[in-house]
Amino acid sequence: MRLDIISIFPEYFAPLDVSLIGKARERGTLDARVHQLRDWAHDVHKTVDDTPYGGGPGMVMKPEVWGEAIDAVIEGGSPTGVTGGGSPRLIVPTPSGRPFTQELAQELAAEPWLLFACGRYEGIDSRVMAEYGTRLRVDEISIGDYVLAGGEVATLVMVEAIGRLLPGVLGNAHSAVDDSFAPGAMRNLVEGPVFTKPPVWRGHEVPPVLLSGHHGKVARWRRDEALRRTVANRPELAAALDPETLDKHDRRLLEELSFRFQPEDMAN
Ligand code: JBE
Is 179 a catalytic residue? Predict the structure, then answer.
């Protein structure tokens, strides 16, 4: 995968040299390039922002500098690179975007080329998204309902979620498909607790069933714990469970757990 990131803070992306993503870059599985937006600003102060039309607080990122930056990155990549003359999918992290999910991470992991445009301040002049929307697939994406200082950390989050799905990036090929939110048997449930040696630590015992060697009982216990945690921490996921995917034991456990919840806890 080819990955370009445009930001006024390229230093934010030092973590891309580390761990799984760092190794994927060394091996060439991931060709990641970080660009300084100000390289395409022409005035002496390398200005990238201006006051918002219509008034209001904060500053808005200027369209001209973004246009030149995005054009240059697209043109620099298409003639010869691994992208085969194609164009990138443009991703703009913003709290007003559609939610980033594991499903979207999987979709993006299948793309040959992604370009992340990291806005600061109150965001990027909306005409930039309109302009590239006529030529590229443009996605405004939010990683969650909180306000970050800019798109950089959201980009890191998405790149990590996408990067670990690339073929050959995870050491254990099964790790990615077992994830709580990956499609499959455990979709819509969060994972239960995990344990390793020693069997007793500071007086806390590992649940004996996990030491029993009884695979069926272990699987049942893990599913019970996943259901308990989902009800406790993610009532909206529990409420959305498809009864068709639940066995008798699941339903009995959920009924037991539901008695402990007030109706307002179950609403969203
Ligand atoms: O989620 N996001 O992509 C964001 C981007 C910029 C600021 N806050 C966010 N939550």
Answer: yes
25 CA → ligand 1 middle, Å? 25
Residue nearest to atom 5 of ligand 1 (CA): 94
The DSSP bridge partners found for residue 160 are none
More confident residue, 23 or 80: 23
Tokens of 254: 């959920």
- Of 18-22, 36-40, 166-170, 172-176, give the lowest mean pLDDT range: 172-176
Backbone angle region of 203, left / alpha / beta, with phi > 0 → left and psi within -120 to 50 → alpha: left
| pLDDT at residue 208 in the model | 98
Examine the residue annotation and report whether 164 is marked as an active-site residue of this protein: yes
Q: Give the pLDDT of residue 54.
A: 98
Q: Is 256 a catalytic residue?
A: no
pLDDT band, very low/low/confident/very high, at 262 (cuts 50, 70, 90): very low
Interior CA angle at 163 toward 72 and 178, to 5°? 155
**Exposed (0-12), middle (13-18) or buried (19+): which is 259, by Cβ within 10 Å?**
exposed
CA of 99 to the centre of ligand 1 (A): 10
What residues does ligand 1 touch, defined as CB less than 6 Å away?
A: 93-95, 142-144, 146-148, 150-151, 154
- Cis, bond preceding 198 (omega within 30 deg of 0): yes
Atom in ligand 1 nearest the alpha carbon of residue 119 = 6
